[in-house]
Amino acid sequence: MDKHEFAICVDNHGYEVSLEMRKLYEIIVDADAEKHNQIRVIDESGEDYLYPATLFDRITLPPHVMERVFHAQT
Fold it and tell me: 3-state SS of the chain?
């Protein structure tokens, strides 16, 4: 399995339609975005978009949880 990263939304002010508070989001690695203090996540639309990195806290999931989250059916 490829390395997947996740973050939890801790502030959705100004992005209430696109982001849910306390929800887990998959991160799409984007080095250019990180240089500008942004983070690329797959949001409620199912597409990946850039958001201010301050809206999220990155988290590390245990391997067995990561596997279940990544393969969960929507």
Answer: CCCCEEEEECCCCCCCCCCCCCCEEEEECCHHHHHCCEEEEECCCCCEEEEEHHHEEEECCCHHHHHHHHHCCC
CA distances from 72 to 6, 57, 69 (A): 14, 22, 5
* pTM assigned to the model: 0.84
pLDDT in tens, the chain (74 residues): 357 899 999 999 999 988 999 999 999 999 999 999 999 999 878 899 999 999 999 999 998 998 888 787 65
d(CA 63, CA 1): 10
Question: Which residue in 38, 44, 1 sits closest to 24, CA to CA?
Answer: 44
